[in-house]
Design a protein that fits this description.
heterodimer, A: 43 residues, alpha+beta, B: Purple Acid Phosphatase, chain A, domain 2, elongated
Chain lengths: 43, 311
């Protein structure tokens, strides 16, 4: 009987907490629009 | 940093104003200097023609985008999209311009160029759908942002039909700031207007799926608190009431508030499970409390001297 599947299963179990606990990737998008030719403070 | 378009001119026919060219040149130079990655080409960006835009951005990192603006042969006049790697994520940015019912001159006629050189805005939705699909399949992007310099009603249609776009930043009418609008296929986020604010979209990604609005969950919790307060008041009044007509009216109010509370509780419970993708929109107001950069201020005052009637 091969122990390979058991070893793989054990490895998968070991890795699960790391995968589940992986921090989400954070990203900030800054954006503008409809500037309409303004070059100085207004409004 | 991205721009949804319609940045350069006040109106579609203001390209002939004495300071229009200087304003547009300054804006493009500053957008590049401030690290703007891409901008959609809107109707109010084309006043001085396609060549003007190309020449002004030839050496800049700022990319002008349009997936549907073509010449007479049907060749795209600007790149349809760009891909940016940020924080370990691949972001696909697509640009869109207004569809036109008939070809329009490529350059302003006043410049004496042949009116025969024409451009056209192809239908927006198919062009965006094709580019979003290409970005997902070929470029393997993690998310797709559409800079849509197209009329709002067209964006609404697109947002209910086109797959593969996570966020739409729309410009055209100057609708200003607001809250994210979740549509069938995507979320529309208002970019603000007239340089009065900087929109900030904070994203958190830990897996696939649609983005969930973090502020919506907070708003629902606030709503639930209000309903619970009103429900307690209505029950108290009902317990004290002796008038039959008033009692019936209060019973109906209590029933309606209870139904509303159940619906909100369900929404909050759904939001308690952490979503794989969330977004939070806010605005940084650029008022007089934000100091001007002295070098930029000087450049602005050459075009718009202090005390001038520009505003």
């Amino acid at each position: 009987m091969s122990f390979r599947p058991l070893r793989l299963a054990a490895l998968a179990l070991l890795l699960v907490p790391f995968v589940a606990g992986a921090a989400p990737k954070q990203l900030v998008l800054l954006f503008t629009g409809d500037n309409g030719g303004e070059i100085a403070p207004c409004g | 940093m991205l721009d949804a378009g319609n940045a350069l001119f006040r109106s579609r026919d203001s390209g002939g104003a004495p300071d229009a060219r200087a304003r547009a040149e300054l804006l493009l130079a500053q957008m590049d200097a401030q690290g703007t990655t891409a901008m959609a080409v809107g109707a109010r960006d084309l006043n001085l023609g396609v060549d003007f835009l190309r020449k002004q951005t030839r050496k800049s990192k700022l990319k002008l985008l349009s997936a549907n603006l073509v010449d007479a042969k049907g060749t795209l006049l600007f790149p349809a999209s760009t891909v940016v790697d940020v924080g370990g994520l691949k972001v696909g940015v697509v640009g869109a311009s207004p569809a036109t019912t008939q070809p329009e001159p490529m350059e302003p006629l006043a410049q004496g160029k042949a009116a025969g050189v024409m451009r056209q805005g192809l239908p927006v939705a198919p062009a965006v759908a094709a580019e979003a699909k290409r970005l997902r399949q070929k470029e393997r992007v993690d998310l797709v942002v559409l800079l849509a310099a197209v009329p709002y009603d067209e964006v609404l249609k697109l947002a209910n039909e086109v797959e593969g776009v996570d966020f739409v930043m729309q410009s055209h009418e100057g609708r200003g700031s607001g809250i994210p609008q979740r549509m069938a296929m995507t979320t529309i986020v208002p970019p603000g207007d007239r340089g009065r604010q900087l929109a900030k979209l904070e994203l958190s990604i830990s897996g696939p799926g649609r983005f969930v609005d973090n502020s919506e969950v907070a708003r629902t919790r606030d709503g639930l608190r209000i309903v619970e307060t009103n429900l307690a008041k209505a029950r108290e009044r009902l317990a004290k009431s002796t008038d039959e007509v008033q009692k019936r009216s209060l019973e109906s109010a209590v029933a309606s508030l209870e139904a509303r509370r159940t619906a909100l509780e369900k929404t909050v419970a759904g939001g308690a499970t952490p979503a794989a993708r969330t977004h939070l929109l806010s605005y940084i107001q650029l008022g007089s409390d934000v100091p001007a950069d002295p070098a930029v201020q000087k450049a602005v005052e050459r075009i718009e001297p202090p005390g001038s009637a520009a505003h």
